[in-house]
Each structure stands twice: as structure tokens, then as C-alpha cells.
Amino acid sequence: MFPGVLVAALSVMPASAKDRVGYQAIAAGSLTQAERTIEAERTIFPERPELMLNLAAIYARTGRDAQARALYGDVLGADPVAMDLADGSVQSSHTLAQKGLARLTTTMATR
Fold first, then answer.
1. For residue 22, what pLDDT is reported?
2. Which stretches of 1-111 are assigned E, i.e. beta strand?
3. What is the pLDDT, as a whole number, of residue 78?
4. Strand, coil or helix: what is 106?
5. pLDDT digits (tens, 9 = 90+) for 60-104
6. Count of domains observed in the chain
7. How far apart are CA 32 and CA 57, in angstroms?
8. Would the pTM count as exceeding 0.85?
9. 29 and 84 Cβ atoms separated by less than 8 Å
10. How would DSSP label each residue in 18-29?
11. pLDDT one-digit tens code per residue, 2-48
12. What is the rounded distance in angstroms from the CA atom of residue 29 to the CA atom of residue 106?
């Protein structure tokens, strides 16, 4: 449903740390497991943008738009962080959050 958001948010950690941000579970389509992994990490690191972005992507994919929107807002309310993406590019956490919000808005407009 929101593949662009999911892909953008997936690989914001080095390969060795992806399990802690739910990457493997998201890639395997196990969103429930990914959500549990991310929520556990957020109890330790609540302000890490990669966790917020991945969780927002899961929320968006599972129809929890208000929760996704809130997390994207939290990312935008913090200082921007350079995020390494799967394709080797680097984007600001703010850019990724804005893209996620735009997809939510577009989806709502087409419902």
C-alpha cells in the first residue's frame, strides 16, 4: 500500500543493526513482528528517527494513519539526521518524514 514509505524507512541502519529496527521482519512481510521489535527498541531509544520512521511506515501500511502522522510529526519536530538508505543514498530524516506524510495525504484524498 505504501511501498515508497516502507522502502525509504527500511534501511536507515548498517546491515549488522537492521534487526533492531525491524528491517528483516518488514522485508519478510512480518509487520507484527517488526512492530514488536521496534517498540521494544523504542523503550530504550525513544527518539531515534529510524525507529520512528519504520514504525510510522508500519502504521501507514496497517491503516493507522493518525498514529503514522504523529510519528512523522515527531521526526519533523527533532533535529534532522542523515539516514543511509538501501540504495546507498543518504537522505534527511525530515525528507523521509515529509515523504511519508505526503503519501498519507495522497492516500486519504483518494479514499
1. 84
2. 82-84, 90-92
3. 97
4. helix
5. 999 999 999 999 999 999 999 999 877 788 999 999 999 999 999
6. 1
7. 12
8. no
9. no
10. GGGGTHHHHHTT
11. 444 444 444 454 444 557 888 788 888 999 999 999 999 999 999 99
12. 23
